Amino acid sequence: MSDEALVKRLKIIVKEHGGQLALAGAIGVDQGFISKVINKKQEVSYYLIRKLCFQLKYSPEWLILGTGDKKINKPEAAKLITEIQMLRTEVDILHARMRAFEIEIKEIKDFNWPGKQQAG
Fold first, then answer.
1. How far apart are CA 6 and CA 48, in angstroms?
2. pTM confidence score
3. SS3 74
4. CB 55 within 8 A of CB 45
5. How far apart are CA 36 and CA 1, in angstroms?
6. Contact 78/54 with Cβ under 8 angstroms?
7. What residues have CB less than 8 Å from 102, skipping those under 6 apart?
8. Bridge partner list, 58
9. b/e map 36-55, b = 16+ CB within 10 Å
């Protein structure tokens, strides 16, 4: 999950916390990880989003979508992050199934394509 606007919001968080090293220390990750995400050498992960939201109380809505309040102290934020993770897992499963079906369809087409000689 990478998008220009989300990285821009991450840069705001980095600035608010006094730099990449300070932010990394605040959420318990390596500074290099933060640097890679900001420089778009690594995708923004739900792991990072979860840490920013749970530990630093940033709103998942603001962080992911850019809407709503930047920071929240409401208990439903944890529920929202859990729901986002569940949806992400479902999307990943659907993508894997889709790739499997695409491979199966290609194999069927290759085997039954008109004009191809079938081994037999």
1. 12
2. 0.61
3. coil
4. no
5. 14
6. yes
7. none
8. 71
9. ebbeeeeebebebbbbbbee
DSSP 18: T
Tokens of 30: 């390596």
Q: Which residues have CB under 8 Å from 11's CB, separation 6+?
A: 38
Q: Which three-class secondary structure state does DSSP give residue 71? A: strand
Note whether 85 and 46 are within 8 A (CB): yes
Helix (H) or strand (E) holding 105: helix 76-112
Q: What confidence tens digit (pLDDT) does each residue in 48-106 have?
A: 988 898 888 888 888 888 888 888 766 666 677 777 777 777 888 888 899 999 999 98
Length of the chain: 120
Alpha carbon 99 to its chain centroid, in Å, reads 19
pLDDT at site 119: 53
For residue 62, what are the contacts with CB-CB under 8 A and spacing of at least 6?
A: 9, 68, 69, 70, 71
Q: DSSP string of 21-61?
A: HHHHHHHT--HHHHHHHHTTSSPPPHHHHHHHHHHH-B-HI
